[in-house]
Design brief:
The protein is α+β, with helices and mostly antiparallel strands and 236 residues long. It has three domains: 46 residues, no CATH class; 72 residues, Alpha-Beta Complex (Homing Intron 3 (I-Ppo) Encoded Endonuclease, Chain A); 57 residues, GCC-box Binding Domain (2-Layer Sandwich), CATH 3.30.730. It has six helices and eleven strands. Strands 9-10-11 form a three-stranded antiparallel sheet, with helices on one face. β10 and β11 form a beta hairpin. The longest helix is centred in the C-terminal third of the chain and has 16 residues. The protein is elongated, with a radius of gyration of 32 Å. The N terminus is likely disordered.
């Protein structure tokens, strides 16, 4: 509290206490970095962002700073600036052939990711859950289109870990031939497939094309719809 010295009647300085500082508290504008405006909280009915499950405080237009900037970049605050996972799935995809390719954040392996309640999740799993409900325990979501960035639910299905691992788009990076289950041996190319810890041999062939055809047929018989491709861009 401020103390002022003023002349008394006898010329001796007297003391007077100034009134407490009662400056009018102004609601911060949309560029204020920290505070939450009372009127925004009143309009929103809450002091948190209007985006589903976002715990951050309001910054402007019923949004936190992150979602406000996202909406501002889109140039769209109306009719309702809510921008949750469902809206992101609808807004951040491009149609490429029959696939709906996620254009948001992706990992190094090509799988899209999205944050829900502050936790990063695989976006194809979120898309499947929106259409079908929670993923059953012990199962995963497999792409029938072999495109990790696709969120088209027609291309997604439930699979066990083993089925998901089998349904690959081609040979692994350490393959010496570029064809799954085909390896070079003296006199040609050998077809060998492993299932449940046991190796099955299907012969040796003079050309890699002949070996690939046999490998594809054998995988289809052994693994059915989860056989995957023998080579990148090859047949089912």
């Amino acid at each position: 509290m401020l103390t002022l010295e003023i002349p008394g009647k006898s010329g001796v300085p007297g003391r007077m206490r100034a009134a407490p500082n009662r400056e009018r508290q102004l609601s911060p504008g949309p560029n204020h970095p920290n505070q939450v405006s009372d009127w925004r909280a009143t309009v929103n009915g809450t002091r948190t962002c209007s985006v589903d499950e976002c715990p951050r405080g309001i910054y402007a237009r019923k949004l936190c700073k992150v979602h406000y900037r996202t909406a501002k970049l889109r140039g769209d605050f109306t009719p309702d600036p809510r921008y949750g996972a469902a809206e992101a799935l609808a807004a951040r995809v491009n149609k490429v052939g029959d696939c709906l390719i996620w254009t948001g954040s992706t990992k190094s392996d090509g799988y899209g990711q999205i944050k829900i309640a502050g936790k990063a999740r695989a976006v194809h799993q979120v898309a499947w859950e929106f259409a079908n409900g929670p993923i059953p325990e012990g199962l995963e979501i497999d792409h029938t289109c072999f495109n990790p960035g696709c969120v088209n639910t027609d291309h997604l299905r439930l699979a066990t870990r083993a089925q998901n691992n089998r349904n690959l788009s081609g040979a692994r990076s350490n393959s010496r031939t570029g064809v799954r289950n085909v390896s070079p041996v003296a006199g040609g190319f050998q077809v060998q497939i492993r299932k449940a810890g046991r190796f099955y041999h299907f012969g040796t062939f003079a050309t890699i094309d002949a070996a690939q055809r046999v490998a594809e047929a054998a995988r289809a018989e052994m693994f059915g719809d989860f056989a995957g491709r023998a080579a990148l861009g090859g047949g089912e």
